[in-house]
Amino acid sequence: MTQPARKLRYAMVGGGQGAFIGAVHRQAMALDGQYELVAGALSSTPDKARASGRELGLAHDRNHGDWPALLADELKRASGDRIDLVSIVAPNHIHFPVAKAFVDAGFHVVCDKPLVHTGAQADELVAAVQARGTVFGVTYNYSGYPMVRQAREMVRAGELGEIRKVVVEYNQGWLATRLEAQGNKQAAWRNDPAQSGGAGAIGDIGSHAENLVATVTGLKLESLCADLTSFVPGRTLDDDASMLLRFEGGARGVLVASQINSGIENGLRLRVAGTLGTIEWWQEEPNRLTHFPLDGPPRLLTRGAPWLHESARLAGRIPPGHPEGFIEAFANVYLGVAAAIRAHAGRQVPDPLLADYPDVAAGARGVHFIEAVLASASSTHKWTALQGQAT
Amino acid sequence: MTQPARKLRYAMVGGGQGAFIGAVHRQAMALDGQYELVAGALSSTPDKARASGRELGLAHDRNHGDWPALLADELKRASGDRIDLVSIVAPNHIHFPVAKAFVDAGFHVVCDKPLVHTGAQADELVAAVQARGTVFGVTYNYSGYPMVRQAREMVRAGELGEIRKVVVEYNQGWLATRLEAQGNKQAAWRNDPAQSGGAGAIGDIGSHAENLVATVTGLKLESLCADLTSFVPGRTLDDDASMLLRFEGGARGVLVASQINSGIENGLRLRVAGTLGTIEWWQEEPNRLTHFPLDGPPRLLTRGAPWLHESARLAGRIPPGHPEGFIEAFANVYLGVAAAIRAHAGRQVPDPLLADYPDVAAGARGVHFIEAVLASASSTHKWTALQGQAT
Amino acid sequence: MTQPARKLRYAMVGGGQGAFIGAVHRQAMALDGQYELVAGALSSTPDKARASGRELGLAHDRNHGDWPALLADELKRASGDRIDLVSIVAPNHIHFPVAKAFVDAGFHVVCDKPLVHTGAQADELVAAVQARGTVFGVTYNYSGYPMVRQAREMVRAGELGEIRKVVVEYNQGWLATRLEAQGNKQAAWRNDPAQSGGAGAIGDIGSHAENLVATVTGLKLESLCADLTSFVPGRTLDDDASMLLRFEGGARGVLVASQINSGIENGLRLRVAGTLGTIEWWQEEPNRLTHFPLDGPPRLLTRGAPWLHESARLAGRIPPGHPEGFIEAFANVYLGVAAAIRAHAGRQVPDPLLADYPDVAAGARGVHFIEAVLASASSTHKWTALQGQAT
Amino acid sequence: MTQPARKLRYAMVGGGQGAFIGAVHRQAMALDGQYELVAGALSSTPDKARASGRELGLAHDRNHGDWPALLADELKRASGDRIDLVSIVAPNHIHFPVAKAFVDAGFHVVCDKPLVHTGAQADELVAAVQARGTVFGVTYNYSGYPMVRQAREMVRAGELGEIRKVVVEYNQGWLATRLEAQGNKQAAWRNDPAQSGGAGAIGDIGSHAENLVATVTGLKLESLCADLTSFVPGRTLDDDASMLLRFEGGARGVLVASQINSGIENGLRLRVAGTLGTIEWWQEEPNRLTHFPLDGPPRLLTRGAPWLHESARLAGRIPPGHPEGFIEAFANVYLGVAAAIRAHAGRQVPDPLLADYPDVAAGARGVHFIEAVLASASSTHKWTALQGQAT
User: Fold this and answer.
1) In Å, how far is B132's CA from the nearest CA of chain A?
2) Dihedral sign (CA B152, B158, B159, B163)
3) Cα–Cα–Cα angle for B120, B122, B124, nearest 5°?
4) Which residues, including other chains, have CB under 8 Å from residue D378's CB and lie 6 or more apart?
5) What is the DSSP string of D195-242?
6) What is the C-alpha separation between C171 and A64, in angstroms, rounded?
7) Minimal Cβ distance to A326: which of B26, B31, B323
8) Out of C242, C254, C274, whose CB is closest to B262?
């Protein structure tokens, strides 16, 4: 008879009061009953960190003012009490030191994207994870949507034939004005090079677009040609990016990431065209994937339908026609991480159908992508090659 | 400084292994960190009930084989240990005895719809709740969608003027064949009059449609004229319902509830037309409400937008453009119940903005609606009046 | 080698200055080069009739002040000079006398809908056409949309199995205020019982909905239960209609026709559900028909696609993806009439694939439908049988 | 009193049997009753030319085997009998000699796009038209859609603020396989460099995309960076094009034109983002323009609505909600040409609201655009400047 699985214990770094994404991570982890929050260092400001922990019901002795204290405390605890993993949801510049320290200490890690600031850091982190053999997930949350997984499986199964063309756009409008100068915290750190790492829209949302393309197509990006712009007066980082893509094997692509499309909410849209068919997926209507076969009418594939690939079916909770959304997709990434952690604990090879999540290599690939985009943007040469891909 | 709110302790009746809706309730209750499951009688089959409880990690002494045992046990416990509420997710015929017993014992209750089998039971339950003064929620989950709340607030604020016409359709296709004869448990109990109460599609989904209309428009249904059909050979209950509606004050309407629309997943669609404008909302694209003003272009109202009514904004968790879905809407009903229970505990008048949930009167109204539909369906008179509305 | 077909010569009755629909008929007839306007009595006001004819370039001696003069003149002409057909686009009350006179005189006729005011007139007209053996088309223009024809052929071919449920809605908003009191000519005659025949919305647009159902499903309406309302103060005729439908063989349906849905433009929408699948068609996106099979993903059928039924493919002019619209659908009705007239001239049996148009029997059926609706609306009995169907 | 306007007499070059686009031009010219076909040289094969003319009912003496004979004959005729204009719908390589000859002879001309093969030819033609002062239209038919005109007027009126970003995609799938090797005439000439001028998809549909951007935004393209690909084995010309755009004043853009998106029909989609709002228009749903204001909910602007700009309202024939399509848009270009020709005949300054059509300068701009794309595609430099813009 099935025994209840023990909930995985996690600590959170960042995500305290006023942080949007921390709450999303916690809801995603709560949804399926796989995780419990037991410790934290929830802000870079100690008082705020502790106040946030109190609100979330953390025990006093596991509610820390900074992450080194959290790490030190966990290392002192018995294994039956110790956290299984840390979830890092702090601004980007915190990612590397925290992630590196916890990986080196043998903890599993989930880290927000973009993973780190430089390709060198990314490679160092990949090496550390490989050395420790721990689980490391990156919350490219859009990869958790069931219909994104369906798209990936269709490509893998050859249902689109050879992929020829990929167009991905991620358009938002919320930075069409200089919000960072008006006290908006989300806008402020994203547009501070010290915190966000020199990449604006391309780091914040372009990295999601890159991962979506890589996830669905499995294609390796060979070179790119990018144009970055800062449209809003006074802004130092790019708020608009457009680029041409060339993939190994000859496929071509276009990637757009822009935060100045006034009035657009969260327009992430992907089109993949192959010799046998084309698919379109839109994040704002995530339960649907439109499939245009070469020789028949377009088909509307919907979440939960029995004719989906198993990987897509497993990623849903409820019957077709009952929409799942952003938090559920986020939770799917965490479900994949949980499966990997449980397999690790049981010294088993993880079932790829269950342990389905973007790993540290995907995170590193995204960092190299951003570096290549920044290099291309300041080059007069047409094509900039991708370097050091950790694929 | 904000102190963490204690999680509300709940027991679940029904919702064990193989039950779809039990898991949804638990996910909805987990999502926002307001509830914890501490006890249960998860099936009408004692062994299965206990096995289900073990899987969910219930303590042995709170994992019961039947609901009377659960109730008896809770009544023995100290108030600091006792459950706050019971969530009843068993098939319909179980609703009345369980709900009545827990209400009478002073517990708060959340019960699935349709509330009970007869108008007399419904009225008795309303009276019991009024007598005890406890909180009683009915999971008309579609009322929890933020854009449904926006629609309701627009009507309340007079933005559509005087309501003239309401058309609601709830179409599904999953019962287009005789699934109940093929071992499908969901189909089986729904088509067994003893368990479902003599109403087929009209009880299962028509009741949702009725509640959606009542929630959004606030109109009182005066009379109706219904045509019920059992299309699938061998089926005893209706799988298709269509009816004309007349509301107090002169508005007219149409309600369709059908489960034989082959290939349709969960097509709940509402249109409300008033003197100043019309709105349309579709459950399958729940983050959008289309508003057709009398004198201007249609407007796409989206979840999370700053120009929504406060009630609709509060019902969302994440920024606009990031879809929320069925589980989140379900969770909103439970958030409303939690706010009411906390107000009750604090002997405060609940804030209607927070304690926003369908109550026992709404549940009773739905039962009277179903009775009127069944009466009309067997009548040769055009109009059948609604009786004993508990509004 | 193909010889050019002589253009068919037509006269128009009604459709002069300020009339919207007259211009549409002329554009539809011009589009495919099958017709030329040679004569007319373009208004019931002689001076306006002649002024309208001059604008359209009619020869002076064929530009008449009233339709009896037109008829008398045509009868004097040699057959090589005489018109082939008359197109009647005047308000409804003119239809019967004009149509009857031209049929009796041996001319082919195209008449707008609803055909006439009473079932008795309709039957008389059917008999007259049968007696003369001439061509008589009724411009139920929505039947000319290629995807409506595709829907019809899918039903005929059994692709939806046995039809169980039909829901048709025709919603508009332009009469949500009392436009007829503000000098709007279109609104004025439609709301004058003497001109429109006692039926408001149900005659103006409900008749289109009835014909759409009959065209696509081929089902014979057995009885109906209608609720008619005049919402706008001061209006005498119905501006809103809702009804339940029962068809021979057991299919059920709902028909809504309403002109008070503020802000809605021309929302004619049809859903037909059968044992093997469901289809949806919306007039506002006419190039698409969505097909929901029982056992597979929904399919988007689009105008011009090679996998459509021949009848649907023939009804389009341009490649898929290039939208055709209202005028093209209208023109398809006229193409069907032209094929029938040419077959008549050649004493041939018309090819049903080409001579595809709503005939006088369809027009009569619509009149009987309206009569039944008016009878039902004033009855306290649930069901009113359809009488004297000329099917 | 309004006198009927004489129909404009036109000759057609190309467009004979088997040609798709010739029929569209003739239907577009017939629709509004402004034109009559009186002469032609309908194919480059004399016998086929004459057979085509007979089918269309051309008089024997105006049905020519080649275009020089047509020109010579027209020049001999009296002005009251002579054609007003020639419509050139032959393959691209015929455009220049025919257009140049008729312009030089003083005739008005309408020519299909892309205008000619080289920038030098284009400039020569612009100079010739300027010298003669005649009317010269280019059938960039998408510019004739009412909602494209609405978009243009919104930009002109400053409703979107300063334009920052433009993304235009024109995707088709019909050339995803090597159709030109399978006897498809449309595919064959488009993929023959001698006939199509060295540009494949970029000439056939990329030119439409370029014109759409220029029409709506009025922005001058400064430089571009293009990637052209021939995906289908054996194909010599590009079937896929992607490029980055930079406009004078700092706006940026992306243009995609691809004919290998298997299963996509005619996916021309435009998004224009400005400081005050964003608009989206899709050719496959042409009656709708979505407007995303910076500070309010998205608005659905529909053809025919009273709140549109006058230029957009004038471009429609029927009430809102009644779809117009491709042929009507095409006809709008011809209506603009007709207004210009009538103004020319009356020695009047044309009313820009009526004489609204893409002129020879727009055609020349398109040719220079194609030249720049071809230059960029073979360059290793990032940016290629536009030369000799005839703006």
Assistant:
1) 32
2) positive
3) 70
4) none
5) HH-S-SHIIIIIHHHHHHHHHHH-PPEEEEEEEEE--STT--S-SEEE
6) 61
7) B323
8) C274
Best residue in B227, B268, B289 for a mutation probing chain C (most C CBs within 10 Å): B227
A146-318 carries CATH number 3.40.980.20: no
CATH of span A8-142+333-358: 3.40.50.720
Residue of B nearest to D320 (CA): B297
CB-closest option in C32, C286, C321 to D27: C32
> Are B298 and D297 in contact (CB < 8 Å)?
no
Residue found by looking up tokens 């995303």 in the block: D292
User: Which residue is closest to A293 within chain C, CA to CA?
Assistant: C299
d(CA A14, CA A112): 11
Backbone angles phi, psi at D4, to 5 degrees: -65, 135
* Distance, C-alpha A219 to centroid of its chain: 18
Encode pLDDT of D105-153 as tens digits: 999 999 999 999 999 999 999 999 999 999 999 999 999 999 999 999 9
Q: Would you call D8 helix, strand, or coil by DSSP?
A: strand
Of the residues D327, D332, D334, D335, the best mutation for testing chain C's interface (the one with the most C CB atoms within 10 Å of its CB) is D327
Q: Do B273 and C261 touch (CB under 8 A)?
A: yes
D8-142+333-358 and D146-318 have identical folds = no
Task: Name the neighbours of D, counting chains with at least 3 Cβ pairs within 8 A.
Answer: A, B, C
Q: Considering CB atoms only, which of B297, B302, B307 is closest to D307?
A: B297
Annotated domain spans of chain D = 8-142+333-358, 146-318
**Strand ranges inside A284-369, DSSP E:** 288-293, 299-302
Phi, psi of D390 (to 5 degrees): -90, 50
Q: How far is C276 from chain B (nearest CA, A)?
A: 6
> In chain B, what residues touch C257 (CB-CB under 8 Å)?
none
Strand (E) or helix (H) holding D75: helix D67-76
Average pLDDT per run of 10 along chain B, which is 391 residues long? 74 90 95 96 96 95 98 96 97 95 98 95 98 98 98 98 98 95 83 84 97 98 98 96 98 98 98 98 98 98 98 96 98 98 96 97 98 97 80 40
What is the dihedral sign for C-alpha D262, D263, D264, D265? positive
Q: What phi and psi values does residue C63 have, to the nearest 5 degrees?
A: -110, 95
| Facing residue for C260 by CB, picked from B261, B273, B293 | B273
Distance CA A275, CA A77 (A): 56
The reply to whether residue C263 touches residue B242, judged by beta carbons under 8 angstroms, is no
Q: Characterize the bridge pairing of strands B277-282 and B267-274.
A: antiparallel
**Residue C351, exposed/middle/buried by CB under 10 A (0-12, 13-18, 19+)?**
exposed
Check: CB of residue D292 under 8 Å from CB of residue D104: no
Q: D162 vs chain C: nearest CA distance in angstroms? A: 31
Q: What angle in degrees, to the nearest 10, is found between the helix axes of D92-104 and D67-76? A: 20
pTM for this one?
Answer: 0.97
Question: What ipTM did this prediction achieve?
Answer: 0.95
From CA A33, how far away is CA A23, in angstroms rounded? 16
